[in-house]
Design brief:
The structure is a homodimer. The first copy, chain A, has two domains: about 1-170, NAD(P)-binding Rossmann-like Domain (Rossmann fold, 3-Layer(aba) Sandwich), CATH 3.40.50; about 175-285, 6-phosphogluconate dehydrogenase C-terminal like domain (6-phosphogluconate dehydrogenase C-terminal fold), CATH 1.10.3660.10. Chain A contains 13 helices and eight strands. Chain A has helices at about 10-20, 35-45, 55-60, 70-80, 95-105, 150-160, 170-200, 205-210, 210-220, 225-235, 235-260, 260-270, 275-285, and strands spanning about 1-5, 25-30, 50, 60-65, 90, 110-115, 140, 165-170. In chain A, strands 3-2-1-4-5-6-7-8 form an eight-stranded mixed beta sheet, with helices on both faces. In chain A, α4 (about 70-80) packs parallel to α5 and α7 (about 170-200) packs across α11 (about 235-260). The two termini of chain A are about 30 Å apart.
Chain lengths: ~280, ~280
C-alpha cells in the first residue's frame, strides 16, 4: 500500500511514524515544497521516497494532507483530480468548514475524509515529528456520511490503529468548538507574549523573574505563524466571537481590580476554578 | 533553632520541607488559621508543633510568613511586636510594595527581610507542598539595605541552601515586573477558563476536543482565588496597566482577523515567537 504524506511536518510526520510501526509494509511517499524538509524526512525514516505532488498522488492508495489549512484548500482539487479511482484522501487540517466546502463541489468527494486530530505541540517541521504524538488523543471526523464506505472504513481503521478515539460532527460544529478550546488559547498566548516582550525590553528580566506558570501560559506563543494565520483566517467569524467574549471577561476583570472589588474578583476566580474538573480529566486521558 | 511557618500551604510547606532536609536539627512550628491544615502539616512531617501565632513567634529565631499577601499585611505588625530581639522575619509574598510599606513604619524593620520566590503551582494547601518546589528557582529580595546584617545573612544563607539563586531590587521594580511576567498570565488564564466554560456549557465537549495546548494555557485558572485576589488588589495599578496593554493587543489581533489581514496576523505571531528564546532558557534552568 502506497501512502503519500503531503506536508511532512509535525502532524504528517508523526502520523507516518505511528503507521509505519503498525504496518511495516506500507510504502511512504513524502511531498513537501521544502527540499530540506524532504531530505530530513528521508533521513529520519519518516518516508521512503520524496516526489512531486501529481506523481505521488497518482501512485497512491492513500493521500494524507497535513499542510497549513490554506494550502490544503489550494491543493485539494488537484489532489482529487489526480487520485486513482479506488484511493482515499484524508486531510488533517485544524479547520473543517472551508476545506469541506471545497471538497463538496468535487466529483470525487466520496473518496475524501475530513479529519482533525486533537494533538499538537508548539514545534513544527519534520524534526518535531514523533511517534507518540497521536496515540491516546481524540480525533474528529466531519461529514462522515459524505465519504464512501471504503474510504471511511480505511481512515477509521488507520486512526484507531494509531491509538486514537474517534468523534463525529459537522464541520460547523467542529469549527465553533475549536474556536474556543484551541484557537482562542493560541491567540491568548500570542498576545501575552507580545505584551510581555513589549514591556520587558530586557529579555533577561523576563528570564530571571518568570516562573513555570508563565512558561505554561505563554507556551503556545512559540507556535508556527504559517500554520496559525490561515486557521484564524478561515475560522474568523467563530474566532472573532470567541475573542470578543474573552476581551469582555478581561475588561470586566480589569474593572473589578480598578474598583478594588475583591469579592467579585474572588467570585470570578472561583467560577474559573471549575475548569479544574475538565483539566484533571484531560491530563488523566 | 526554632522556625515558625505562618501559613503552612504550598509555599510555606515546601520551604519547610527543603530546610528540614538541609538542617535536621531545626525545630518547625506551624501557625495556621485552619486546624485541618495544622493536622495535615503535622501528619506530613512539615512541622513538629502547631501553636497560636503570638506563642509561636515569641519562641522563634526565625519566622517565615507564607499566607496570602493581605494576611501578611494584617499580621506583620503583630509578628514584629512579638518577635524576640535577635530573631528574623521573612515574608514570601507575591507583592512587595504594600508589605514593605507596613514594615517600614515598624521600629523592628531591620529584623525583617522581604523575599519572593519565583515558584509555585496551581495547587494549594499543605497537601500540595513538596521538597522540590524551590531548589533551582530564582528568589528576589527587596530593600535588602533596610535589613540588618544578621537577618539578611541568615535569610540569604537559607535561600541559597534551599538551592535558590538570589536577585535584588526595590519593591517598586519587583511589583512592576511581576505584573507582567506573573500576575497577567494568571488573569489571562482565569479569563480563558471563564470564556470557555461560559460557551461550552457541556463540559464533556471541552474534554473531548481540548488538547494539551489548551490545558497548558488555562492551567493557572486552577489557582487559589484566596491567594490571588489580594495580589491583584495590592498590585492593582501595575496589573491594571498590564491588562490594558494585553487587551489592546487582543483587540488589534481581533481587528486583523476581522479584516482578513493575514500579513499582519503573520507579523504579530512572528514577533510573539521571540518568546521562544526566553522560554527555552527558563526550561533549561
Amino acid at each position: 500500500m502506497n501512502v503519500s504524506i503531503i506536508g511532512i511536518g509535525l502532524l504528517g510526520g508523526s502520523f507516518a511514524l505511528v503507521l509505519r510501526e503498525k504496518y511495516p509494509k506500507m510504502h511512504f511517499i513524502g511531498v513537501d515544497t521544502s527540499p530540506v524538509n524532504g531530505q530530513l524526512a528521508l533521513a529520519k525514516g519518516i518516508v521512503d521516497d520524496v516526489m512531486p505532488l501529481a506523481e505521488a498522488v497518482s501512485k497512491s492508495d492513500l493521500v494524507v494532507m497535513a499542510t497549513p489549512v490554506n494550502v490544503i484548500i489550494d491543493l485539494l482539487p488537484a489532489v482529487l483530480d489526480h487520485l486513482p479511482s479506488s484511493a482515499t484522501v484524508i486531510d488533517l487540517g485544524s479547520t473543517k468548514g472551508s476545506i469541506c466546502d471545497v471538497a463538496d463541489i468535487h466529483p470525487k468527494r466520496a473518496q475524501f475524509v475530513a479529519a482533525h486530530p486533537m494533538a499538537g505541540t508548539e514545534n513544527s517541521g519534520p524534526g518535531a515529528a514523533f511517534r507518540e504524538l497521536l496515540p491516546g488523543k481524540n480525533l474528529i471526523i466531519c461529514d462522515s456520511d459524505k465519504s464512501n464506505t471504503e474510504s471511511l472504513t480505511l481512515a477509521e481503521s488507520l486512526f484507531r490503529d494509531a491509538g486514537m478515539k474517534l468523534f463525529y460532527m459537522t464541520p460547523k460544529e467542529h469549527d465553533l468548538h475549536l474556536a474556543y478550546v484551541s484557537h482562542l488559547s493560541h491567540i491568548s498566548a500570542f498576545a501575552l507574549g507580545l505584551t510581555v516582550l513589549e514591556k520587558e525590553k530586557d529579555e533577561q528580566a523576563i528570564f530571571d523573574m518568570a516562573s513555570t506558570g508563565f512558561s505554561s501560559t505563554v507556551r503556545l506563543a512559540k507556535s508556527s505563524p504559517q500554520m496559525w494565520a490561515p486557521i484564524f483566517d478561515q475560522n474568523r467569524t467563530n474566532v472573532s466571537n470567541a475573542l470578543a467574549a474573552y476581551i469582555e471577561f478581561l475588561q470586566q476583570f480589569k474593572q473589578v481590580i480598578d474598583d478594588q472589588d475583591v469579592a467579585t474578583s474572588l467570585d470570578f476566580m472561583k467560577r474559573a476554578n471549575v475548569i479544574r474538573r475538565v483539566l484533571d480529566g484531560i491530563e488523566k486521558r
